[in-house]
Amino acid sequence: MAASVVKRSVYINDKVFLVTGGAAGVGAAVVRALLAENARHVAFIDVAEREGAALETELLSKFGPLRAKFIKCDVSDEDQLATAYFQVVDKYRRLDGVINNAAVLSDSRHYKRMIDINFTATVSSTLKALEKMGADKGGNGGVIVNISSLLALDLSSHLPVYSATKTAVLQFSIAMGSEEYFAKTQVRVATVCLGPTDTAILNRTNLENFDKDSTAHLTSRVPVRQRVEAAANGVIEVIKSAKSGATWIVANDQPAYDCSGNIAEAYQVLSKTQV
Ligand SMILES: NC(=O)c1ccc[n+]([C@@H]2O[C@H](COP(=O)([O-])OP(=O)(O)OC[C@H]3O[C@@H](n4cnc5c(N)ncnc54)[C@H](O)[C@@H]3O)[C@@H](O)[C@H]2O)c1
Questions:
Q1: What percentage of the chain exceeds 70 in pLDDT?
Q2: Which of 24, 39, 95, 192 has the highest Cβ tally under 10 A?
């Protein structure tokens, strides 16, 4: 028992993490949970300057000097993202884990920006993290958790672009977490599919996107939203326990669980359609 606790805790205890979209919602809860689990330093990047600065002040007073750092950064801007990674590694001299959590749910006029933030920036940040942490690049290995959604596993017609970005995050992360990559990088890449969670992303304005019916549909279908703390606890469990390439579900305030078997089965069925 004691041995397994020690083994799981090594992934967080005294380690340096970067969380994208960490100023509010699930990201902020993950930042808090990592510090509560004794991460040495947690840097979090976000466009929300006021919320980010306020959270940094709160965390420094609660956990002590240097434990947390807010960096204002738009993840969809390659230069800003590269600068943020440079700042973290320059300040803390190492990087052990990255949670790619930043995302938006915006209306149809802004779909290209949503794809940039939700998918393209997740790819860029994953590749940058592998550059810094990959054993094949001189790093110490580590963990990357990419945040997807239950909508990636659902063929409903609602929120088509948002759902597609989250499906893309899932497939990309499964591929980057494959044995083949892990053997070289020693960086586990895992995906979390979150269920509806009580954050600003689900506010009515965000949900009124492609058709008016989608708001009523989504709010009636998902009356229960889990607490951000439950979502963050699920992400922590994934950091501690997930195998590389795994997909976990964190929903309904329940403990996180590995659904990789179902995903593999689904892809096996899909691959049967090839001639
Ligand atoms: N809340 C839910 O019901 C739910 C369900 C499934 C998946 N998710 C996923 O969980 C993750 C967290 O979402 P949330 O619910 O906490 O939403 P949120 O809106 O509360 O938080 C998202 C954070 O990302 C930041 N952000 C947005 N654009 C950014 C950019 N360009 N650069 C940097 N930061 C940016 C925001 O400022 C905000 O702090 C997202 O990936 C989301 O898709 C959420």
A1: 88
A2: 192
The answer to whether residue 4 scores a pLDDT higher than 70 is no
Length of the chain: 275
Q: What is the 3-state secondary structure (H, E, C) of 135-191?
A: HHHCCCCEEEEEEEEHHHHCCCCCCHHHHHHHHHHHHHHHHHCCHHHHHHHCEEEEE
The closest residue, in CA terms, to atom 1 on ligand 1 is 197
Give the torsion sign (CA, 240, 231, 48, 152): positive
pTM: predicted TM-score of the whole model, two decimal places: 0.94
- State the chain's mean pLDDT as an integer: 91
Phi-psi region of 93 (alpha: psi -120 to 50; beta: other; left: phi over 0): left
Token pair listed for 181: 């990559």
Contact 196/222 with Cβ under 8 angstroms? Answer: yes
Whole-number Å distance between alpha carbons of 69 and 64:
11
d(CA 59, CA 19): 14
Alpha carbons 76 and 142: distance in angstroms, whole number: 23
- Nearest atom (ligand 1) to Cα of 117: 31
Active site residues: 162
**How far is residue 5 CA from its own chain's centroid?**
24
Cβ(202) – ligand 1 distance below 6 Å: yes
| Ramachandran bin of 226, using left for φ above 0, alpha for ψ from -120 to 50, beta for the remaining angles | beta
Distance 200 CA to ligand 1 centre (A): 8
Distance CA 240, CA 243 (A): 9
> CA-CA distance, 32 to 27, in Å (whole number)?
9
Q: pLDDT of 215-241, one tens digit each? A: 555 555 555 699 999 999 999 999 999
Vertex 266 angle, CA 223 and 111, to 5°: 55
